[in-house]
Design brief:
InterPro entries: 4Fe4S_Fe-S-bd, 4Fe4S_Fe_S_CS, Aldolase_TIM, BssD/PflA/YjjW, Organic_radical-activating, Organic_radical_activase, Radical_activat_CS, rSAM. Helix content is about 35%, strand content about 20%. The chain contains eleven helices and eleven strands. The strands form two sheets. It has a nine-stranded mixed β-sheet with strand order 5-1-2-6-7-8-9-10-11. Strands 3-4 form a two-stranded antiparallel sheet. The structure holds iron/sulfur cluster (2 copies).
């Protein structure tokens, strides 16, 4: 299998685990949540995004295209060889490549200059996505190298990983922290709004909690994106609170929905453009959600932007 593509490495992150962290975003996700704000993470493959508001209509992209495609807007993926000639020719950065092929050595070279920040603040590296757990072979190797260099390691997951894969087991052994996102408890509703059933998510969460509780796995920290009228219903929150509390969790982080990524759907050619209108949760929504977790003996924290 080719190395996974990454769509960003962000430094100085303070919400993806303890201390100052560098977060590596891998491209590819098994879920299709209707509220997703990182649609560029869905496909594993590199994509070319077109930001129409920057386009000068100069035609240089079409001139550069060896396939003779009518650019910039008409870019059928079957005909495009992803040679990136159009991206390089565009003087306005209206066309941009999303997804970069990186080796383990490339990623390590970009992370090593940040080690002093990690040491000074108790930070480290967080694998994110998309779903980084889709690439256990690559990730377990990268995690082993980072661990050898004394780096604290976290991974954000939607829970859809293959826990039976030996590389996944190795990866989990290297992690210090697993930030485990849960969304919709009802399986049919999860299928409708996130694209798949949620049985593997619940099974993996249970397994990860048991490993943590027996001292054989990383610290697991549950999080829930608070999406008004989708994940924030009393029934959904109560069901998750009961499930998590039974597994021994006493804390959860609520991730308030924001709509910062809506425009990115317009940039990507094979993306549903219609989005449900979703408001940003307010303080009252957060208090109400927190009080539901409290009933089950859990404290809910709010993630800050
Ligand atoms: S990536 Fe290459 S083949 Fe694809 S549209 Fe751009 S120039 Fe044409
Ligand atoms: S090269 Fe860039 S600015 Fe010019 S037409 Fe193509 S996308 Fe627009």
């Amino acid at each position: 299998m080719d190395n996974p593509k990454i769509f960003s490495i962000q430094h100085f992150c303070i919400h993806d685990g303890p201390g100052i962290r560098s977060t590596v975003f891998f491209k590819g996700c098994p879920l299709r949540c209707v509220w997703c704000q990182n649609p560029e993470s869905w496909k594993k493959e590199m994509e070319i995004a077109f930001r129409a508001h920057r386009c000068l209509s100069c035609g240089q992209c079409a001139e550069a295209c060896p396939q003779g495609l009518k650019l910039p807007e008409n870019r059928p993926s079957e005909a495009c060889s992803l040679c990136l000639a159009c991206v390089q020719a565009c003087p306005a950065e209206a066309l941009i490549a999303m997804g970069e092929a990186c080796t383990e050595a490339d990623i390590l070279a970009r992370l090593r200059p940040e080690y002093p920040n990690f040491e000074a603040t108790g930070g480290g590296v967080t694998f994110s996505g998309g779903e980084a757990g889709m690439f256990p072979g690559f990730l377990s190797g990268l995690a082993a190298s980072l661990k050898k260099e004394g780096v604290h390691l976290a991974m954000e997951t939607c829970g859809m990983f293959d826990s039976k894969n030996p590389d996944t087991k190795t990866l989990l052994q290297h992690l210090d922290l697993l930030l485990f996102d849960v969304k919709i408890f009802d399986t049919d509703l999860h299928k409708r709004l996130c694209g798949t059933g949620n049985y593997p998510i619940k099974a993996n969460l249970r397994e990860a909690a048991e490993a943590m509780n027996s001292g054989k796995g990383p610290l697991v920290w549950p999080r829930l994106p608070l999406v008004p009228d989708i994940t924030d219903g009393e029934e959904n929150l109560s069901e998750w609170a009961e499930f998590l509390s039974d597994l021994g969790f006493r804390e959860i982080t609520l991730l308030p929905f924001h709509d910062h990524g809506n425009s990115k759907r317009l940039w990507l050619s094979e993306m549903p453009k219609s989005l449900p209108v979703i408001r940003t949760p307010d303080a009252e929504d957060l208090l109400r959600a927190g009080s539901i977790f409290e009933k089950y003996g859990m404290k809910a924290h709010e993630a800050l932007e």
